[in-house]
Amino acid sequence: MKESIENPTDIVQQCTMCKSQGEIMIDEPRFKNIQKERDILTVHHIRRLQEEIDMLRKQKIYLQSKLREKGNQDDKRG
């Protein structure tokens, strides 16, 4: 990392998260919180996908009804 734009001298910065050891220790409460957040994301994603499926089903029904209407109009003309 450079000290600054004016002084581009390289400086070494120690990692404050792992104290430059390359590993981060996770205690039990933090680990459970990470799992809980992962589960919430999973539930959130499933809910969004279900809503999208519902919307697509409604669009399908609508388009099928329009296709039937078109077919009925063509039958009356022919």
Quick structural gist:
The chain has 78 residues and is mainly α. It is built from 1 helix and no strands.
Helix count from the secondary structure assignment: 1
Mean pLDDT, to the nearest integer, reads 85
Name the beta content range.
under 5%
Biggest β-sheet, characterized? none
**How many distinct beta strands?**
0
Descriptive overview:
The protein is built from one helix and no strands. The protein has 78 residues and is mainly α. The protein is elongated and about 85 Å long. The termini are far apart.
Features of the shown structure:
78 residues, mainly alpha, 1 helix, elongated
List the helices and strands and how they pair.
Elements: H1 28-77
